[in-house]
Amino acid sequence: MFRSRRMHSQRRSRGSRSRHGRELRSSVAGPYLPQLTGRIPRFFQVVTETVGFLQAVAPDLMEDVSVTVAGMPPADATGQDAVGLWGLDRTLKRVVIYRVPVERMARVSLSDPADQPMFREYVERVVMSGVNELLDGRLEDRLDPGGWGR
Fold this sequence. Notes:
Elements: H1 39-57, E1 66-70, E2 86-89, E3 94-98, H2 99-106, H3 116-134, H4 138-143
Parallel strand pairs: 1-3
Antiparallel strand pairs: 2-3
Helix pairs in contact: 1-3
């Protein structure tokens, strides 16, 4: 048996309803849960916050310094530390932090919330060490003027 389709004189726009005639959909996490983030956005966030801290502590030293993140070091990497956690470009005053080697050398579970503070501290230390090497040790004097670490 053939049914005729009812034609509406007013057609709704395509985006007014979701599939199956239900209401518009909301976020999967809902309004009361924190945004879902993964290890890569968290890594970028820690690096960004660490660079912001260094710019606040030593604005004159960090004036032209840029810090970027790459997944892995290139095969012909020069000017990097012995383990390959960061690379330096002294002409451009740039530090490149290599995310995958840093995550592996941290030796903590990236999915365990209890290990997140240790991972954050490790990433901060790597960023500060890379920037300190680029600045020939001048950042260390600014961060530790009393020589606590010596």
